[in-house]
Amino acid sequence: MKVYNTLTRKKEEFIPIEEGKVKMYVCGPTVYNLFHIGNARTFIIFDTIRKYLEYRGYEVNFVQNFTDIDDKMIKKAQDTETTVKELGDHYIMEYYKDADKLKIKRATVNPRATEYISEIISFIEELIEKGYAYEVDGDVYYSTKSFVGYGKLSGQKLEDLQTGSRVDVDERKQDPMDFALWKNAKPFEPSWKSPWGNGRPGWHIECSCMALNLLGETIDIHAGGTDLIFPHHENEIAQSEGRSGKTFAKYWLHGAFINVDNKKMSKSLNNFFTAREILEKYDQEVIRLFMISGHYRTQINFTVEVLDAAKASLERMYNALNILNGYLNNEKEEISEKEKSVVVELNRYKERFIEKMDDDFNTADGISVIFELIREVNIRINKDSSQKLVKHAIDLLIELGSPLGIMQNPFGGSLEEEIEKLIEERNEARKNRDFAMADKIRNDLMNQGIILEDTPSGVRWSKRS
Length: 465
Ligand code: AMP
Ligand code: ZN
Known about the structure:
This protein has helices at 37-55, 71-79, 84-101, 117-129, 158-164, 203-215, 229-244, 275-281, 284-291, 304-326, 337-358, 363-380, 387-401, 413-431, 435-447, and strands at 2-5, 10-13, 21-26, 59-64, 133-136, 139-142, 179-184, 199-201, 219-225, 249-255, 258-260, 263-264, 300-302, 450-455, 458-463. With 465 residues, it is an alpha/beta fold.
């Protein structure tokens, strides 16, 4: 398997530290808002990569943090007259609601920065001891000059960074490129006791610290959106490698951004969408298919048209499954000699799918292979095929869809969910004494051949025979 490593700017053979196991850390959201479709792409990309690694037999220890203390959290808490803690609790709950709906597998651990304050303080103390950090009036800064490899991830030299970047000039810093590890408490801000007085951690240190505590000094994969390469991940390397003297992460993976109507998404341009808004209009599998329709290192453009195109593609996949489903009752049961070669033929597509996905998780090409398989299935399988061959084709499609999170809801799964949802709506209408609506729902279902029966233990439904 090959992965593109931002650090070396090359595709490299993927060899985990421990055979069969992957330690993976993905930078998570700052929990002061519902997450937007850009965040969603990053989360879906790394969820797909994780699921693919699992599909290939790796055991993945997957850590994704919640940043629950920073300037944005403090400002939002002040604006909404709540505490930073309550704000974090609330948006973490909301994160899970949306992420679960998108079928993003829950992380092995989702640590919160504020749960690691004492570990962060120890980490900073070690950096000071080793000469990588210094204190000024209750703030602690990392001295970028003292870390020889500074700039290696983003491919910049420290001198170029200094002249090229817009860093805040602060006389107390020894160098403009130095960054805060610990920030002295300002009035009305949450703070914790430390050897340097009351204060709070900077953003970069939380990830270095939580990765160390949950995964160890060297991890396999560190990931996030491309915006994090500099300064966030550059600073994480300086902190972690400064402290341990060892490689922090073997492979650095970065997911490209989403644009909306070919422009950068922003609230001021009015082209900003939360994942929740899109989930109201599109099935989660449509959203996932759209998000991975381009390779994870290429930007994708979000428009209603491309989402509709993803919807149509997914429908073609389900159509193929439904047609196959109709052949499951074919007369012939056992596979014939001739059909054995069809099985071999179909399995070639699995090999090709794996070949594409093994090449730096090329989901775009992987999806194309699935469509080629569907074409082949349409040619090879019909009402004369054996049940076993039909079943094999169905299983194969569902299997290849699994790491991508598509075709995972075949044959009535979605229909049943739809019926349950309508029954729920009818119950709600009846509770509100909106009998016209309740009757309408019942009649609509009746027209689709679904009969509702009101029983003492609730509503039961059945298909008209
Ligand atoms: P944040 O909550 O802004 O710290 O972001 C959480 C994750 O979402 C990070 O990995 C970011 O790189 C990623 N991210 C933020 N905006 C976008 C975007 N427009 N497209 C893709 N990923 C994004
Ligand atoms: Zn991070």
